Amino acid sequence: MSLWLKKLLLSLSLMFFQQWRRDLVSRSKAKGISFYLKVLQTARRSLIALALLFLSLQVMLLGLVMAVASGLYLLPWTLELKAYLALGLGLSLFLFPLGFVIYGLSDRFWYRQSGAEDMVEKFIEENR
Q1: pLDDT in tens, 23-52
Q2: Which residues of 5-34 are buried (b: 16+ CB within 10 A; e: fewer)?
Q3: Whole-structure pTM value
Q4: Measuring CA to CA, which residue among 104, 122, 5 is closest to residue 56?
Q5: Greatest pairwise CA separation for the chain in angstroms
Q6: What's the pLDDT tens digit per position in 41-83?
Q7: SS3 letters for 36-90?
């Protein structure tokens, strides 16, 4: 094979590999940006949910205090019966929201809501 043909083949192969490397870097950057945007979206949704959770807990606490105080004041029952009623209402109004908070902060809930479950399933399907 002549020298100029070897140089031509070497030049063409280098051009091919440089283009292949550029495409690979470009795809890697695109995947990195996509991952970053998904993390950013998840963080934003988590912050919004946390703010709404905090606000709802404050509203529930205020409602609990107002309802129990006014209800006990207006009832014509004995003091002991009012105390038992206050205890029952207080426990029920505390335990129901606590159940929602526990569910809302569970790993399984956030795994599904953040879209991580879909990303993992898609990754597993692509790599089979």
Answers
A1: 877 778 778 787 888 888 888 889 889 989
A2: eeeeeeeeeeeeeeeeeeeeeeeeeeeeee
A3: 0.42
A4: 104
A5: 112
A6: 888 889 889 989 998 888 888 887 888 788 888 889 888 888 8
A7: HHHHHHHHHHHHHHHHHHHHHHHHHHHHHHHHHHHHHHHCCCCHHHHHHHHHHHH
